[in-house]
Amino acid sequence: MASFLITGSSRGLGLxxxxxxxxxxSGQVGTIFATARQDNSAQLKELxxxxxxxxxxxxxxxxxxxxxxxxSRLVEQKLQGKGLDYLINNAGAMDWNPAGVEGILLASxxxxxxKSVINISTTLGSIxxxxxxxxxxxxxxxxxKAALNMLSVQYAQQYASEGFTFLLVSPGWLQTDLxxxxxxLPVETGAEKVVDIVLKxxxxxxxxxVNIHVPGWENAKGNNFxxxxxxxxxxxxxxxxxxxxxxxxxxxxxxxxxxxxxxxxTGVLAVEQNILEILLLKVGALEDILKIGLGxx
Length: 297
Ligand SMILES: NC(=O)c1ccc[n+]([C@@H]2O[C@H](COP(=O)([O-])OP(=O)(O)OC[C@H]3O[C@@H](n4cnc5c(N)ncnc54)[C@H](OP(=O)(O)O)[C@@H]3O)[C@@H](O)[C@H]2O)c1
Known about the structure:
Blueprint: E1 2-6, H1 12-22, E2 29-36, H2 42-49, E3 55-59, H3 65-79, E4 86-89, H4 102-108, E5 116-120, H5 139-159, E6 165-170, E7 174-175, E8 185-186, H6 187-199, E9 209-211, H7 237-260, H8 265-283, H9 287-293
Parallel strand pairs: 1-2, 1-4, 2-3, 4-5, 5-6, 6-9, 7-8
Helix pairs in contact: 1-6, 3-4, 7-8
The protein binds NADP nicotinamide-adenine-dinucleotide phosphate (NAP).
Protein backbone atom coordinates (compact mmCIF):
# COMPACT_ATOMS: atom_id res chain seq x y z
CA MET A 1 0.00 0.00 0.00
CA ALA A 2 1.55 3.23 -1.15
CA SER A 3 1.74 6.30 1.08
CA PHE A 4 1.22 9.88 -0.14
CA LEU A 5 1.92 13.35 1.18
CA ILE A 6 0.25 16.37 -0.44
CA THR A 7 1.17 19.95 0.37
CA GLY A 8 -1.54 22.64 0.45
CA SER A 9 -4.55 20.36 0.98
CA SER A 10 -6.85 22.84 2.72
CA ARG A 11 -8.61 23.75 -0.55
CA GLY A 12 -8.29 23.78 -4.35
CA LEU A 13 -6.31 21.13 -6.17
CA GLY A 14 -4.58 19.81 -3.02
CA LEU A 15 -7.91 19.03 -1.37
CA UNK A 16 -9.24 17.49 -4.60
CA UNK A 17 -6.12 15.30 -4.92
CA UNK A 18 -6.54 14.03 -1.35
CA UNK A 19 -10.23 13.39 -2.02
CA UNK A 20 -9.51 11.52 -5.27
CA UNK A 21 -6.79 9.38 -3.68
CA UNK A 22 -9.07 8.55 -0.75
CA UNK A 23 -11.73 7.33 -3.19
CA UNK A 24 -9.43 4.64 -4.61
CA UNK A 25 -9.19 1.10 -3.18
CA SER A 26 -7.10 0.82 -0.01
CA GLY A 27 -4.99 -1.89 -1.68
CA GLN A 28 -3.78 0.75 -4.13
CA VAL A 29 -3.64 3.84 -1.92
CA GLY A 30 -2.64 3.58 1.72
CA THR A 31 -2.10 6.51 4.06
CA ILE A 32 -2.63 10.00 2.68
CA PHE A 33 -0.94 12.77 4.62
CA ALA A 34 -3.04 15.79 3.70
CA THR A 35 -0.97 18.72 4.87
CA ALA A 36 -2.19 22.25 5.44
CA ARG A 37 -0.57 25.28 7.01
CA GLN A 38 -3.45 25.67 9.41
CA ASP A 39 -5.95 23.25 10.88
CA ASN A 40 -8.93 25.32 9.75
CA SER A 41 -10.38 23.75 6.60
CA ALA A 42 -13.90 22.44 7.18
CA GLN A 43 -13.77 20.46 3.90
CA LEU A 44 -10.50 18.78 4.81
CA LYS A 45 -11.85 17.92 8.28
CA GLU A 46 -14.90 16.36 6.63
CA LEU A 47 -12.70 14.29 4.30
CA UNK A 48 -10.56 13.12 7.21
CA UNK A 49 -13.49 12.07 9.35
CA UNK A 50 -15.08 10.14 6.45
CA UNK A 51 -11.84 8.35 5.56
CA UNK A 52 -11.68 5.75 8.36
CA UNK A 53 -8.16 6.82 9.29
CA UNK A 54 -6.71 6.76 5.77
CA UNK A 55 -6.40 10.54 5.47
CA UNK A 56 -4.35 12.20 8.20
CA UNK A 57 -3.85 15.89 8.76
CA UNK A 58 -0.30 17.13 9.14
CA UNK A 59 0.25 20.82 9.78
CA UNK A 60 2.86 22.05 7.31
CA UNK A 61 3.79 25.50 6.09
CA UNK A 62 6.20 24.81 3.24
CA UNK A 63 7.97 28.15 3.65
CA UNK A 64 8.73 27.61 7.35
CA UNK A 65 11.80 25.47 8.04
CA UNK A 66 10.72 24.57 11.56
CA UNK A 67 7.29 23.53 10.36
CA UNK A 68 8.88 21.34 7.64
CA UNK A 69 11.16 19.66 10.19
CA UNK A 70 8.28 18.98 12.56
CA UNK A 71 6.08 17.60 9.79
CA SER A 72 8.95 15.44 8.58
CA ARG A 73 9.49 13.98 12.06
CA LEU A 74 5.78 13.31 12.49
CA VAL A 75 5.41 11.61 9.10
CA GLU A 76 8.46 9.40 9.71
CA GLN A 77 7.06 8.42 13.08
CA LYS A 78 3.66 7.57 11.62
CA LEU A 79 5.20 5.51 8.83
CA GLN A 80 7.16 3.51 11.42
CA GLY A 81 10.26 3.22 9.26
CA LYS A 82 8.37 2.21 6.12
CA GLY A 83 9.15 5.46 4.29
CA LEU A 84 7.01 7.65 2.06
CA ASP A 85 6.23 6.64 -1.53
CA TYR A 86 4.83 9.78 -3.13
CA LEU A 87 5.37 13.44 -2.31
CA ILE A 88 3.04 15.78 -4.21
CA ASN A 89 4.31 19.37 -4.09
CA ASN A 90 1.08 21.16 -4.76
CA ALA A 91 1.31 24.34 -2.65
CA GLY A 92 2.48 27.10 -4.96
CA ALA A 93 4.70 28.75 -2.33
CA MET A 94 7.85 26.76 -1.82
CA ASP A 95 11.17 27.04 -0.07
CA TRP A 96 13.40 25.03 -2.33
CA ASN A 97 16.37 23.31 -0.79
CA PRO A 98 17.18 19.72 0.18
CA ALA A 99 16.35 20.57 3.79
CA GLY A 100 12.93 21.75 2.59
CA VAL A 101 9.89 19.74 1.82
CA GLU A 102 11.80 17.22 -0.36
CA GLY A 103 13.69 16.34 2.81
CA ILE A 104 10.60 14.53 4.04
CA LEU A 105 10.84 12.13 1.18
CA LEU A 106 14.59 12.02 0.70
CA ALA A 107 15.12 11.22 4.37
CA SER A 108 12.37 8.69 4.75
CA UNK A 109 12.01 6.89 1.43
CA UNK A 110 15.33 5.10 1.17
CA UNK A 111 13.68 1.73 1.64
CA UNK A 112 10.71 2.36 -0.64
CA UNK A 113 10.16 1.21 -4.16
CA UNK A 114 8.35 4.26 -5.56
CA LYS A 115 10.24 7.27 -4.21
CA SER A 116 8.40 9.74 -6.42
CA VAL A 117 8.16 13.51 -6.18
CA ILE A 118 5.40 15.08 -8.23
CA ASN A 119 5.84 18.82 -8.67
CA ILE A 120 2.67 20.59 -9.71
CA SER A 121 3.70 23.04 -12.39
CA THR A 122 1.89 24.68 -15.29
CA THR A 123 2.36 25.07 -19.03
CA LEU A 124 2.58 28.82 -18.27
CA GLY A 125 6.05 28.07 -16.88
CA SER A 126 7.27 26.53 -20.15
CA ILE A 127 9.62 28.88 -22.02
CA UNK A 128 8.87 26.88 -25.16
CA UNK A 129 5.19 27.84 -24.87
CA UNK A 130 5.79 31.46 -23.86
CA UNK A 131 4.50 32.71 -27.22
CA UNK A 132 1.18 30.92 -26.64
CA UNK A 133 0.60 32.69 -23.31
CA UNK A 134 1.85 36.12 -24.32
CA UNK A 135 -1.51 37.70 -23.44
CA UNK A 136 -1.67 36.06 -20.00
CA UNK A 137 -0.08 38.79 -17.95
CA UNK A 138 1.33 37.00 -14.92
CA UNK A 139 5.13 37.22 -15.27
CA UNK A 140 5.95 36.46 -11.62
CA UNK A 141 3.87 33.27 -11.68
CA UNK A 142 5.40 32.16 -14.99
CA UNK A 143 8.92 32.85 -13.73
CA UNK A 144 8.50 30.95 -10.46
CA LYS A 145 7.08 27.94 -12.30
CA ALA A 146 9.91 28.07 -14.86
CA ALA A 147 12.31 28.04 -11.89
CA LEU A 148 10.43 25.11 -10.37
CA ASN A 149 10.78 23.26 -13.69
CA MET A 150 14.55 23.74 -13.72
CA LEU A 151 14.85 22.86 -10.05
CA SER A 152 12.92 19.66 -10.60
CA VAL A 153 15.35 18.71 -13.37
CA GLN A 154 18.28 19.41 -11.01
CA TYR A 155 16.80 17.07 -8.38
CA ALA A 156 16.08 14.49 -11.07
CA GLN A 157 19.73 14.48 -12.09
CA GLN A 158 21.03 14.48 -8.54
CA TYR A 159 18.88 11.64 -7.20
CA ALA A 160 18.42 9.42 -10.26
CA SER A 161 21.08 6.95 -9.12
CA GLU A 162 19.19 6.48 -5.84
CA GLY A 163 16.05 5.47 -7.71
CA PHE A 164 14.02 8.63 -7.19
CA THR A 165 11.63 9.95 -9.82
CA PHE A 166 10.96 13.69 -10.06
CA LEU A 167 8.06 14.46 -12.40
CA LEU A 168 6.52 17.82 -13.28
CA VAL A 169 2.79 17.76 -13.98
CA SER A 170 0.59 20.48 -15.45
CA PRO A 171 -2.90 19.94 -13.94
CA GLY A 172 -4.82 22.06 -16.46
CA TRP A 173 -6.60 25.35 -15.96
CA LEU A 174 -8.85 24.51 -13.02
CA GLN A 175 -11.78 26.14 -11.28
CA THR A 176 -10.18 26.96 -7.94
CA ASP A 177 -9.59 30.20 -6.02
CA LEU A 178 -6.41 30.57 -8.08
CA UNK A 179 -7.80 29.49 -11.44
CA UNK A 180 -11.12 31.36 -11.12
CA UNK A 181 -14.59 30.33 -12.25
CA UNK A 182 -13.87 30.81 -15.98
CA UNK A 183 -11.24 28.09 -15.97
CA UNK A 184 -11.46 25.15 -18.38
CA LEU A 185 -12.06 22.28 -15.99
CA PRO A 186 -13.68 21.46 -12.66
CA VAL A 187 -10.98 20.88 -10.06
CA GLU A 188 -12.17 17.27 -9.62
CA THR A 189 -11.34 16.54 -13.29
CA GLY A 190 -7.84 17.98 -12.90
CA ALA A 191 -7.29 15.98 -9.71
CA GLU A 192 -8.50 12.74 -11.29
CA LYS A 193 -6.17 13.18 -14.29
CA VAL A 194 -3.20 14.15 -12.12
CA VAL A 195 -3.75 11.06 -9.96
CA ASP A 196 -3.87 8.89 -13.12
CA ILE A 197 -0.39 10.21 -13.96
CA VAL A 198 0.92 9.92 -10.38
CA LEU A 199 -0.06 6.26 -10.07
CA LYS A 200 1.79 5.37 -13.29
CA UNK A 201 4.95 7.30 -12.45
CA UNK A 202 8.18 5.41 -13.03
CA UNK A 203 11.92 6.10 -13.35
CA UNK A 204 11.59 6.45 -17.15
CA UNK A 205 9.81 9.76 -16.45
CA UNK A 206 12.49 11.17 -14.19
CA UNK A 207 13.05 14.86 -15.01
CA UNK A 208 10.12 15.06 -17.42
CA UNK A 209 7.18 17.48 -17.59
CA VAL A 210 3.79 16.13 -18.65
CA ASN A 211 0.33 17.53 -19.27
CA ILE A 212 -2.89 15.86 -18.14
CA HIS A 213 -4.98 13.96 -20.65
CA VAL A 214 -8.66 14.85 -20.81
CA PRO A 215 -10.62 13.03 -23.55
CA GLY A 216 -12.19 15.57 -25.92
CA TRP A 217 -9.63 18.25 -25.03
CA GLU A 218 -6.75 16.86 -27.13
CA ASN A 219 -7.18 19.37 -29.95
CA ALA A 220 -9.14 22.08 -28.17
CA LYS A 221 -9.20 25.53 -29.75
CA GLY A 222 -7.53 28.34 -27.82
CA ASN A 223 -4.38 28.22 -25.74
CA ASN A 224 -5.04 25.08 -23.74
CA PHE A 225 -5.25 21.49 -24.78
CA UNK A 226 -4.92 18.42 -22.61
CA UNK A 227 -3.48 15.54 -24.63
CA UNK A 228 -1.23 13.93 -22.02
CA UNK A 229 1.74 15.14 -24.02
CA UNK A 230 5.23 15.83 -22.76
CA UNK A 231 5.74 19.57 -22.25
CA UNK A 232 8.99 21.21 -23.26
CA UNK A 233 10.39 23.25 -20.36
CA UNK A 234 12.94 25.15 -22.37
CA UNK A 235 13.41 26.88 -25.68
CA UNK A 236 11.75 25.02 -28.54
CA UNK A 237 12.72 24.88 -32.19
CA UNK A 238 9.94 27.39 -32.86
CA UNK A 239 11.17 29.86 -30.19
CA UNK A 240 14.71 29.43 -31.49
CA UNK A 241 13.69 30.35 -35.04
CA UNK A 242 11.49 33.16 -33.78
CA UNK A 243 14.39 34.76 -31.89
CA UNK A 244 16.90 34.11 -34.66
CA UNK A 245 14.80 35.65 -37.43
CA UNK A 246 13.83 38.62 -35.27
CA UNK A 247 17.48 39.31 -34.46
CA UNK A 248 18.39 39.02 -38.14
CA UNK A 249 15.60 41.33 -39.19
CA UNK A 250 16.51 43.99 -36.65
CA UNK A 251 20.12 43.88 -37.84
CA UNK A 252 19.05 44.32 -41.48
CA UNK A 253 16.81 47.25 -40.57
CA UNK A 254 19.54 48.98 -38.57
CA UNK A 255 21.94 48.63 -41.52
CA UNK A 256 19.34 49.92 -44.00
CA UNK A 257 18.58 52.97 -41.91
CA UNK A 258 22.27 53.71 -41.40
CA UNK A 259 22.95 53.41 -45.13
CA UNK A 260 20.00 55.39 -46.46
CA UNK A 261 19.81 57.90 -43.62
CA UNK A 262 16.62 59.17 -41.99
CA UNK A 263 16.34 61.93 -44.57
CA UNK A 264 15.47 59.36 -47.23
CA UNK A 265 12.39 58.04 -45.41
CA THR A 266 10.66 56.89 -48.62
CA GLY A 267 13.70 54.78 -49.49
CA VAL A 268 13.84 53.30 -45.98
CA LEU A 269 10.17 52.34 -46.07
CA ALA A 270 10.53 50.77 -49.52
CA VAL A 271 13.41 48.59 -48.34
CA GLU A 272 11.50 47.64 -45.15
CA GLN A 273 8.50 46.68 -47.26
CA ASN A 274 10.69 44.46 -49.44
CA ILE A 275 12.30 42.78 -46.43
CA LEU A 276 8.90 42.16 -44.91
CA GLU A 277 7.57 40.60 -48.08
CA ILE A 278 10.61 38.36 -48.55
CA LEU A 279 10.58 37.20 -44.94
CA LEU A 280 6.85 36.62 -44.82
CA LEU A 281 7.11 34.35 -47.83
CA LYS A 282 9.84 32.34 -46.17
CA VAL A 283 8.77 32.17 -42.55
CA GLY A 284 4.96 32.29 -42.58
CA ALA A 285 4.27 31.79 -38.86
CA LEU A 286 6.64 34.59 -37.87
CA GLU A 287 4.49 37.13 -39.64
CA ASP A 288 3.28 38.88 -36.51
CA ILE A 289 6.66 39.46 -34.95
CA LEU A 290 8.05 40.67 -38.26
CA LYS A 291 5.22 43.14 -38.63
CA ILE A 292 5.84 44.38 -35.10
CA GLY A 293 9.58 44.60 -35.82
CA LEU A 294 8.81 46.79 -38.82
CA GLY A 295 6.30 48.93 -36.99
CA UNK A 296 3.55 47.84 -39.38
CA UNK A 297 0.87 47.10 -36.73
N1 LIG B 1 -5.84 26.40 -10.62
C1 LIG B 1 -5.21 26.34 -11.80
O1 LIG B 1 -5.78 26.65 -12.88
C2 LIG B 1 -3.79 25.83 -11.85
C3 LIG B 1 -3.22 25.65 -13.12
C4 LIG B 1 -1.91 25.18 -13.19
C5 LIG B 1 -1.21 24.92 -12.03
N2 LIG B 1 -1.78 25.12 -10.81
C6 LIG B 1 -1.00 24.85 -9.62
O2 LIG B 1 -1.70 23.96 -8.77
C7 LIG B 1 -1.34 24.22 -7.41
C8 LIG B 1 -2.59 24.41 -6.57
O3 LIG B 1 -3.31 25.51 -7.11
P1 LIG B 1 -4.80 25.83 -6.67
O4 LIG B 1 -5.50 26.31 -7.88
O5 LIG B 1 -5.38 24.71 -5.90
O6 LIG B 1 -4.57 27.08 -5.69
P2 LIG B 1 -5.47 27.64 -4.50
O7 LIG B 1 -6.89 27.30 -4.73
O8 LIG B 1 -5.07 29.05 -4.34
O9 LIG B 1 -4.95 26.80 -3.21
C9 LIG B 1 -3.64 26.98 -2.76
C10 LIG B 1 -3.35 26.00 -1.64
O10 LIG B 1 -1.97 26.15 -1.26
C11 LIG B 1 -1.91 26.36 0.14
N3 LIG B 1 -0.75 27.15 0.53
C12 LIG B 1 -0.45 28.41 0.18
N4 LIG B 1 0.72 28.79 0.78
C13 LIG B 1 1.12 27.74 1.52
C14 LIG B 1 2.24 27.50 2.36
N5 LIG B 1 3.15 28.44 2.60
N6 LIG B 1 2.35 26.28 2.96
C15 LIG B 1 1.43 25.33 2.74
N7 LIG B 1 0.34 25.48 1.97
C16 LIG B 1 0.20 26.68 1.36
C17 LIG B 1 -3.22 27.08 0.47
O11 LIG B 1 -3.46 26.98 1.87
P3 LIG B 1 -4.35 28.08 2.70
O12 LIG B 1 -5.77 27.62 2.59
O13 LIG B 1 -3.80 28.00 4.08
O14 LIG B 1 -4.14 29.41 2.06
C18 LIG B 1 -4.18 26.25 -0.39
O15 LIG B 1 -4.47 25.00 0.21
C19 LIG B 1 -0.40 25.42 -7.45
O16 LIG B 1 0.94 24.98 -7.44
C20 LIG B 1 -0.72 26.07 -8.78
O17 LIG B 1 0.34 26.84 -9.28
C21 LIG B 1 -3.07 25.56 -10.70
